[in-house]
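REQUEST ID: PR-0412
SUBMITTED BY: lab tech R.K.
PRIORITY: routine
TASK: structure prediction, single protein chain
INPUT:
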Amino acid sequence: MLSTKHSVSVQNSERIEHYFYEAFCQEHEALTREESAAFNIRLIFLLANQVADQNVLHACLDAAGAPGA
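STATUS: complete
OUTPUT:
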């Protein structure tokens, strides 16, 4: 679960994380490096559009850029 106070709290079940990771990897299997990068960008924008909360999105950017992320 993501909090909306400009910090990110991640609480996901391992099953959901595993499923998403598996599906994500499968989508990349037949892609070139350029196609993979384009896929990632499209996915990021689609997910950001679903979140639609600027505070959460900025917190996610901060968390993704943090050392050890």
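NOTES: Residues 33-51 form the longest helix (19 residues).
REVIEWED BY: pending
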